[in-house]
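Reviewers of the previous submission asked for a worked example of the structure-prediction workflow described in the proposal, so we include one complete record here. The input consisted solely of the amino acid sequence. No template or homolog information was supplied to the procedure at any stage.
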Amino acid sequence: MSKGIYINGMQSIAPVPCFDNGFFDSELDQNPKRFLEIIKPPYTNYIPGKKLRRMTKIIRLGLIGSQKALTDASISNIDSILVATGNGNISDTQKFLNAILDNDEKMLVPTSFVQSTNNIVAGSIAMMLKSKGYNMTYTHHSSSFEMSLLDALMQFEEHEAAQILVGAVDEITEENIKIRNQCDLWIKEKINPFDIFKGAGQNHAMIGESASFFVLSNKVQDNSYAQLMDVDLFYHFDNQSIENHIQLFLEKNKLTNQDIDLVFGGFNGVEKYDQEQFSLITKLFPSCEIASYKQFVGEHPTASAFALWMAAQILSGKKIPKEIYYSKSTNRSQEIKHILILQKAFLSEEDYGLILLKKV
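From that input alone, the workflow returned the following structure tokens.
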């Protein structure tokens, strides 16, 4: 991108203690788990009790995450709201479908149906903020978050907005896990999430959930976390075309492979999936440190939003937890100035996403 876009505020709600940035300051829970569920924030501190009763988890997460991100950026009004979700409001969808069966398609309460649409989070945020501006929800499975970022960058490029709220949220439920476990893809026994790269998952991924929100602006502030340099999505079959695309992406942003200090890969413990990413990254960035993020939030469509939250924190000066490293170079000790997030779709293996960040 030709103009500077900055992350001036952000908040993540995840299975690790990051609600008040405790992720970088506290010991991480390594108790065995079958799936990674968010640590519930203090809902009643942000949402009145009467309203809270009518909201399922994904709506609560969206409202609290967006509130905290706006507070972090010290603003109250935004020009656009963009929310990404791969699975949408699973809880209300299940409630409504179960009600159809239980009540023989009669006397159905409409609340769950109304709230089951994927744009309920973006709409709820707009009502909370009394915002009448641009409002969009992206549901493109593993590309959802990158699509929302691309929309934001285009709005800045066309001078249509100065402050944009971009978020990503996906949830899991017990019923959803039971359905997913009919496919032989997911971990069914409790294990330590940090052991998934040691074969503990027996070549299966761990399901998870998270919500991350960011305030993007075309003006840098003293408290800006990082500069969002560029975002890209592409679809390729062969390794050479993937490598060529990443090279062109870096060249477009006037960078070389040596300029990248840290790469986040979407490793999830499935050997074939992880090895393809690791081989690609080590070939393009042989002296670069490699980090991962799904041991913290599990496998879900918008997990890369949590990677963006972690990367921006690191660029702002936070101490890097040792648990993030997938492969650490012992020779590299220089300051981290550029971070690349490589997102590879798990269930559609030819879809890739790139997010490039720079230290402010």
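The longest strand covers residues 226-235. We consider this example representative of the routine output the project will generate in years two and three.
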